[in-house]
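Consider the following assembly input.
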Amino acid sequence: MKLSDKYLLRRIWRYRALYIFILPAVIWYIIFCYIPMYGLALGFKEFHFNMSIWESPWVGMRYFKQFINDRMFWPLLQNTVIISVLKMVIGFPAPIILALMINEVSNKYFKKTIQTVTYLPYFVSWVVCIAVLVKFISPHDGIINSILVNVFHKEAIYFMGEKNWFYPLVLFTDIWKNVGWNSIVYLSALAGIDQQLYEAASIDGAGKWKRMLHITLPNIMPTACILFLLNIGNLLKAGYEQIILLKTPGNSGLSMILDTQIIQQGIQQGRYEYATVAGLFQSVIGLILVIIVNRITKKLADVSLW
Amino acid sequence: MRKSKIQISTIINYTALCVLGIITLYPFIYILVLSFNDGYDTLKGGIYFWPRVITFENYIKVFQDSNILNAYGITIFRTVVGTLIGTIMCSMLAYALAFKNLPGRRFIVFFFFFTTIFSGGMIPYYILLRQLNLTQSIWVYVLPQLYNFFNIMLLRTYFETIPESIGESARIDGCGYSRVFLQMFLPLSKSVIATIMLFFGVAHWNEWFTGAYYVQNKDLFPVATLLQNILNEATFESATFDATKMNTGIATAITSTTPESLKMAFIMVMTLPILCVYPFLQKYFVKGIMIGSVKG
C-alpha cells in the first residue's frame, strides 16, 4: 500500500507540468460553472441585495411552491415540452434523411456544393436567420406574401403575428438552420460502413430498401443515440434563443416558455428566487432525463455518454 | 458502382437536393439583392434576383453610423481576443488530457463533462457576472466563454491520434512537456486548430444573448445584439420601422435609403464575413467532426 502510494505520487510529480496546464481550466470551471450551481441554493433563500447568496436567509420551499402553484406553470411547461417534442419528432430525423440523400449522390462536385450550401445557415446567427425570415415573410413587401397576393389573389398573411403559424415557423427555421450541419455526423457514420456488406447483401438478392433497412440504419443507430442523448437534457430549454426571437405579441400564447419567463421575471423584474427555482426545475429534469435515456440506450444499443 | 441506366430515384434525389439548396440559399440572396438596391425603388416591389437601381448608399450609411461602428468594434474585439485566448486555453488543456497515463484523468474529464448535463441556470449565472462586475465590462464577452467542452474533446481526440512516442522521445532529449506541446503537437495539428478557431470565431461573432440580457448597456452591445434590438422593435410594430429607431445619426429624408434598406445592408454586414470564411475551412471542420465522432 505504502509502495503504491509512493508510486502514484511519483507519477503525479512526473506529470506536474501537465497539471499546471489543467489548473486554469479547473479554476475557470469552478468559477463559471460550479459557483452558479451553488447559486441554485438561492431558490430556497430570500435574496438580499446587500448580502451574498451565502449570507441570505433560508426560507425553505416558499418559492418552490410559488413556482409550482403559479397559474403560468402548466401553460409554460406545456408550451416548452410541445416545442421540444415537435423538434425531436420532426426535426431529429431530418439530418438522417439528408445524409442518406447526400450519400446517394455520386457526382463529387454536386455533393460538395450541396454540403457547403446546407451548412451555411448553421454559421449564421439566430438573429440574422430570424431577421432574414421576417423580411421574407413580411406582410407588406415579403416575397411569399407578394406571390400569394399577386399570383394567387389571396390575402396577405401576417405569419409572425399569427398563432397558427408559430409551430410551422419554429420547425421550419430549426430544420433550415441545423439540418446540414447535423448531417455531417451521419455522413461520417455512413462513410464508416463496410462496402462489402452492401455487395454481399445484393448478391443475396437484397434490394435498395432492404439494404438500407438492414445495413444502413443499424449502422447509424449509435450516432443517432448519442445525438438524442445530447438533446434530451435540453428538453425544458426548447432552443430558447430561437423562440425568444420568434416571439411576438400575436403568438405569445404558444411562445411563452420557461426561459422567456426566467428572463422576464428574473432578469428584467428582479424576482430572482422564483426564476432560480424555474432554472433548477429545468436542470434537474434535464439531468434525470439524460440519466434515464442513457441507461436505456446502454441496454439497447450499447451507447453511453459516460 | 456499376449502373448502366439513370434511375428515377436518382433523379428525384438530385431534384430534392437542388430544391433544398435553393430554399437554403435564396433568402440570403434576396437580402443581398435588396441591400444593393435603392431603398425607395425597393418599395415598388418586384425585385427578386438582381438589384434594379444599384447603389452602395445603404452600406455607406451603415458604416457612417456611430452606434454600428462602435458595436462592430466590440464584436471584432471579442472575436479576435476570445478566439485566440479560447483556442490557446482549450488546446493546452486538451493536450494534458490526451496523456492516457495521467493520474486522475477520468475524474478530471468528468469534472468538466458534468457541467454539460447540469448547470446553475441563468439567474445564478447572472448574479455571478454582476458580483464579478463583469456586466459593465467588455470582458463579459471573453472570460465566461474561454472553455467549451465540445471543443476540448475534439482537440483531445485529435491529440490522442498523435503517437505518444513522439512526445516521450522528445522528453528523453530534455524537452519539457510545454516544449513538446509547442514544437511538436501544435505544428502537427494545424487543421484541428483551424477548426477550433472557426468554431470559437463563429460563436463569438454570432452571440447576442449576453449583450441583450446580462449587459443592458447600449455602448457595450455587439453587432448581433444591436441587430436583435432593431429586429425586436420592427416586429413589435408589425414591420413599420420608424426612421428614428434605426439611429439618430441617419437622416433618410434627402437620400435614397429607407430604414428597411439600411436594415438589409446591416444584416449583410453581419453575415458576409462568416460566409467568406467557412467554405475555405470546410475540409478541416468536416474532418475534425468526423474524428471527434468516431470516439463519441
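Residues 57-295 of chain B form a domain with the MetI-like fold fold (CATH 1.10.3720.10). Ask yourself how this observation constrains the way the partners meet.
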